[in-house]
Design a protein that fits this description.
Blueprint: H1 2-33, H2 39-51, H3 54-65, H4 72-79, H5 87-111, H6 115-123, H7 128-156, H8 160-166, H9 176-185, H10 189-214
Length: about 220
């Protein structure tokens, strides 16, 4: 039970963190560098999982991706497959809950950059694409890395939205937080304690890593 839940958690968190890193950095750049109609609405939508109860976010995900959901019904009609109650659903739930942390951290890092460095790059004939990867991204890397680590930690501890969208199926969708819950209500206190310690140690390591990554460099 422990090993199965641990392996599934690693798979779910790895996929969720990769997707959140790519999508979150792109959204952060859009919000930090562009002005457009609906910008504040988009920002509010991205940040919504931070303030909503996770079970409510999971309920909305069911309405969207369930077999009879707004998108899920078309996916089922075309493929005969539904995403709900699969490990992919657990990854989506974890990613949605982690996305606000990634966007918030990456956006703050991007907005703190001195734009003169980018303007110099443009004046040298570099495209916006080249400037982003050769100037903007390296300058914001510390904040973006911190966002990745925080997103990983949030995805690892995700419970409510995962339970709503993916269920608690042992060996299929049961991640570590769900396994702890099942062990506790089943009276398997020793298993619950072992898994709680594993998640606690991992969380402490993540906090330590975040502090190291966000620590300003020492003056020479």
């Amino acid at each position: 039970m422990i090993w199965s839940a641990f392996k599934l958690s690693l798979l779910v968190v790895s996929v969720a963190t990769l997707a959140v890193t790519l999508a979150g950095t792109a959204l952060a750049f859009l919000l930090a560098r562009r002005e457009f109609h609906g910008k504040e609405a988009l920002d509010s939508l991205v940040m919504l999982p931070m303030v909503l109860p996770p079970t409510v976010t999971g309920y909305y995900l069911i309405l969207l991706l369930g077999r009879r959901g707004l998108l899920g019904r078309y996916l089922f009609l075309m493929t005969g497959w539904t995403i709900a109650f699969t490990w992919e659903a657990a990854a989506i739930a974890a990613g949605v809950m982690a996305l606000p942390l990634m966007v918030k951290s990456a956006r703050a890092a991007l907005e703190s950059i001195d734009r003169r460095y980018e303007l110099v790059s443009f004046s040298l004939g570099k495209s916006e694409f080249e400037t982003f990867f050769r100037v903007t991204l390296p300058l914001a890397s510390r904040g973006i890395l911190a966002g990745v680590v925080l997103s990983f930690a949030r995805a690892l501890g995700e419970f409510g939205a995962t339970l709503m969208l993916a269920g608690n199926i042992r060996g299929k969708t049961q991640t570590m937080p769900l396994a702890i819950y099942e062990a506790f209500i089943s009276g398997e206190d020793q298993k619950a304690q072992v898994m709680a310690v594993i998640l606690t140690v991992t969380s402490i390591a993540v906090i330590y890593l975040t502090n190291v990554l966000t620590r300003p460099p020492k003056a020479a």
